[in-house]
Write a structure and sequence with these properties.
The complex is a heterodimer of chains A (425) and B (315). Chain A is an alpha/beta fold and 425 residues long. Chain A is 46% helix and 13% strand. In chain A, the strands form three sheets. A five-stranded mixed sheet of chain A has the order 2-1-3-11-6. A four-stranded mixed sheet of chain A has the order 8-9-7-10, with helices on both faces. Chain A has a two-stranded antiparallel sheet with strand order 4-5. The longest helix of chain A has 28 residues. Chain A starts with a helix and ends in a 7-residue tail after the last helix. The N terminus of chain A is likely disordered. Chain B has a two-stranded antiparallel sheet with strand order 1-2. The N terminus of chain B is likely disordered. Chains A and B meet through helix 3, helix 10 and helix 16 of A and helix 11 of B.
Chain lengths: 425, 315
Amino acid sequence: MPRVPSLRSRWARAAAGLAVVASALTGCGSGGQGGPVALNWYNFPDDSGALQQAADRCGQQSGGRYTIHYNKLPRGADGQRQQLVRRMAAHDADVDILGLDVTWPAEFAEAGWIREWTGAMRERATADTLDAAVRTATWRGRLYAVPYNSNTQLLWYRDDLVDAPPGTWAEMLAKAEELARAGKPHYVEIQGAQYEGLTVWFNTLVTSAGGSILTPDAQAPALGAPAVTAATVMHDLATSAAADPSLPNQMEDQNRLAMESGTAAFEINYPFVYPSMKANQPKLFPHFRWAPYPAVTPDRPASVTIGGIDLAVGAYSRHADLAFEATLCLRDRDNQLTNALKGGLPPSLRSLYQAAELTQSYPFAADVLTALDSASIRPQTPAYQNVSIAISHTLSPPADIHPDKDVADLRGQIQDALGSKGLIP
Amino acid sequence: MTPPTGARDAAAPAPAVHTPAGRSRGARQERRLGLLLCAPAVIVMLAVTAYPIGYALYLSLQRYDLRFPEQAHWVGLANYGAVLTSNFWWQALGVTVLITAVSVAVELVLGLALALVMHRAVFGRGTVRTAVLVPYGIVTVVAAYSWQYAWTPGTGYLAALLPEGSAPLTEQWPAIGLIILAEVWKTTPFMALLLLAGLALVPDETVRAAMVDGATFGQRLRLVILPLMKPAILVALLFRTLDAFRIFDNIYVLTGGSNGTGSVSILGYDNLFTALNLGIGSAISVLIFGCVALIALVFVKLFGAATPGAEPEHR
């Protein structure tokens, strides 16, 4: 019997502990006693600390009007979209600022989940901002988000294997075959897995060949001859000696690892591979060079797909005015510079590309800016997700592409996707 | 196996009280009490199962996009038409049936072998049973991730055993094989446990008598042990078939359903949560529910598997 009182007191202590936790939790959520308003920012998970630093800095600069709570979304883009969609579909009033992938603003705007930027706020949001980035945040002529970071791919190569970077896909494949015959590292690393990266590859090739996936009004598929050319380039790579055996399963990070392990001669990837190579492979790093994305035809430079994040203000936010202001602060020059240096994400402000701090750690800044100035954007439509899935499913694995037949297939599937008809695979 | 008397009385009038007088008072009151006692459980079950199922049925008859709720409208059976005429559905159903059939068959054989070993283990019985149960104790997603890393070139020790450059998870047939392997590894212990319980029901004397009559091990297994275990085997098969048909987590982690490895559950998930198409997604869910009901019906009616809680003589 002596155990009973001790057990009871343990329960009592546990209950008291719970009460403390509960009061701390509710105290965190309300903030209604005249203190600063707590704004909730949902964005991709950042391990560098740059985003948290920006949130803290803006909170301090607001003069006690607001604080920003940085909520990390899941790591994968699909997971991020699912969480945001569920919150917005449930009219979550605690979502003040949303970090949207550049392909989502059309969908969120059409659903009425994000607010339009107008007047002076719009002026401030677009000043000095890359044109292609602003276009990703625009839907039916209205601005619904403000570009946060931008991103684009370059061609990375090893100058101990390749004297001069290839200008076109045909040149690159020829060079890879030559290296293969000489028994040297020769793979071309690119995103061939069945996911968004494959859609990005296809989109870049189609626009580089002078075409587009959708018609300008985004009501129907365009495709045509440029799409067949693009599918042919993908198929040619996948069936040549240049193809990494893991191509049908490769995403950006597997490409980076393969290049760092020394089996590849070329890599199409985002700039994050540069600091990574520096840190992981100091021996290969001196030979790690970059060049513009290879062209599809010699007479037309590539038009590379833009990536990045746009920040939007939630439609159900109770503090929209403050949220607009906080959003502008989060993407101001200082915070974008920190994000670029610490987080490795290229900024969306044009003038930053000339800043000495940036060019020191981004020696390729000028090339990135050139690529962004001629960048293409992915199809803008609320049904983007379905369109993208149709593309990545039809063109996967790249070695099994039948250019004419698959592009014809794709036309039907994109038509269905635009009409939100039928199933997605 | 028989439920405690109180519970049986609550479910149905006990066979003993069949005189009209006894039925009019005692039994009726007892019955009322029984109904009252199970009412809370019934209400909870209705709230957590019947309502969602009914709502899914209702949604499946609508064109309903999560993004545009105000545009939702009634479309009758059009969603079912769209699903049943889609190649994606039949392909996913084919994959699901294949995974279910192969994995359950392999599990039955392995599970039976394990059950016999556990039943006959002379020493270290506890250790053997614990060791066999380990895979079942590991969270499916965690196990699936270890399989995924193991089979990915560059990070995996199993991929390293394969010829240079093979990435089994990226090709349809190898990937389906690996999904089945992960599923078998994971759930064989469950099968073995259910079969072990059945094995415990086989009277030792019967087996010994057969042995005295000169039956070989094979004959004893085929003619004595398995027929006596039949109810346990059928229940184990029913549970595992229903489970395997709804496979989701292993595929989600191992391949994400790419390259033609998606099951019907993956298809439903993608249409609900990626395409945000509640109508089509619900139609797929209802069809999966129908398939599962059909499987259960076949097992109960054709093979005479006991429904849980049924009296032995009703079989």
